[in-house]
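Design a sequence for this backbone.
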């Protein structure tokens, strides 16, 4: 799905290392944007599952687990970019994708990602396509495999190839050099939420490769095992994102059989469509009349969302202690999302308002 620049053998041979390093930094910035771009759609769908009755809690828990790992992946991409002397850019209007639209990085095919209420079709046709492995394991089910264009795993493998080539070239110099020239103090860890086996300082090729492989494994699994490797998980044995979402679609937990094969025949994952908030898709702040509660809550949501991006930008640009501040702002988003989803849409009877995830630097 992602077109990575300058990772073919011909490009790596023909392009000067200095230019390749510029390309590597650009591709890692794209990785940061890509990981972030999945968070608003997943969050929005999860917000619409909110119910005081506790209905659909298992589905919400699965989406929440994926969201936590997408945030981890964004942090890893920032750590790798910082490790090679780059500077993550997070608090600019262009960092936020337009919804509905393509994900960052020139997504191939017809995939369009929007901000929509939860539905099984959304999970099957959008979320699973985002997370599709390079080689999906043939686990008997009625969910189709998409295989359109380059996958996110191929995108990250291209980054590893480019990074490895540059570091090997640097080490071959006399005296040996390195592309890992970033300030180690800019590395972000957060042991309260992410154990050291999945979020750790990136200081050299080995740690950078290990970190990126965690992203690939958590998203896709391997070509033979749909579960995340024990060393790449902070949550215990869980399926990779693609198969986690497939569980939701099929309503059954993925388990390993006695003969070593895998099947969706574990405990049920119940879903009640009547308990999903009927949000109007792809809301924007401008469509809400000024002075309405929908407008005011959308403005406050977007202001807090922009404040979150500012906190994350500071976190990944020399103030790693700000990660706690960012986390506090992130929790406030839920408050305003719940308020929005409780407001009838002023222009669409029968539908509710919803979060728009737009750049709003001031109140």
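Sequence:
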């Amino acid at each position: 799905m992602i077109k990575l620049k300058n990772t073919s053998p011909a490009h790596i041979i023909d392009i000067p290392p200095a230019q390749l390093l510029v390309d590597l930094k650009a591709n890692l910035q794209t990785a940061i944007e890509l990981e972030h771009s999945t968070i608003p759609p997943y969050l929005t769908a999860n917000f619409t599952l909110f119910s005081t009755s506790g209905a659909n809690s298992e589905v919400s828990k699965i989406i929440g687990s994926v969201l936590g790992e997408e945030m981890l992946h964004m942090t890893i991409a920032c750590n790798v970019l910082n490790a090679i002397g780059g500077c993550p850019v997070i608090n600019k209007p262009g960092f936020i994708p337009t919804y509905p639209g393509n994900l960052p990085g020139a997504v191939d095919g017809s995939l369009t990602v929007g901000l929509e209420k939860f539905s099984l079709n959304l999970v099957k046709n959008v979320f699973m396509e985002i997370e599709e492995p390079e080689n999906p394991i043939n686990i008997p089910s009625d969910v189709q495999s998409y295989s359109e264009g380059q996958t996110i795993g191929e995108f990250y493998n291209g980054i590893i190839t480019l990074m490895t080539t540059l570091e090997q070239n640097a080490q071959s110099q006399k005296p040996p050099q390195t592309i890992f020239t970033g300030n180690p103090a800019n590395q972000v860890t957060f042991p309260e939420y992410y154990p050291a086996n999945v979020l750790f300082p990136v200081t050299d090729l080995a740690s950078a490769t290990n970190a990126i492989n965690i992203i690939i494994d958590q998203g896709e699994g391997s070509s033979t095992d749909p579960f995340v490797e024990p060393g790449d998980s902070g949550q215990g044995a869980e399926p990779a994102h693609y198969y986690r979402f497939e569980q939701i679609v099929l309503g059954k937990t993925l388990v390993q059989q006695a003969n070593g094969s895998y099947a969706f025949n574990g405990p049920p994952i119940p879903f009640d469509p009547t308990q999903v908030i009927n949000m109007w898709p792809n809301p924007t702040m401008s469509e809400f009349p000024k002075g309405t509660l929908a407008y005011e809550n959308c403005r406050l949501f977007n202001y807090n969302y922009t404040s979150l991006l500012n906190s994350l930008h500071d976190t990944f640009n020399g103030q790693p202690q700000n990660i706690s501040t960012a986390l506090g702002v992130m929790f406030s988003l839920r408050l305003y999302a719940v308020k929005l989803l409780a407001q009838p849409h002023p222009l669409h009877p029968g539908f509710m308002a919803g979060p728009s995830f737009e750049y709003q630097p001031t109140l």
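The chain has two domains: 9-273, 278-363.
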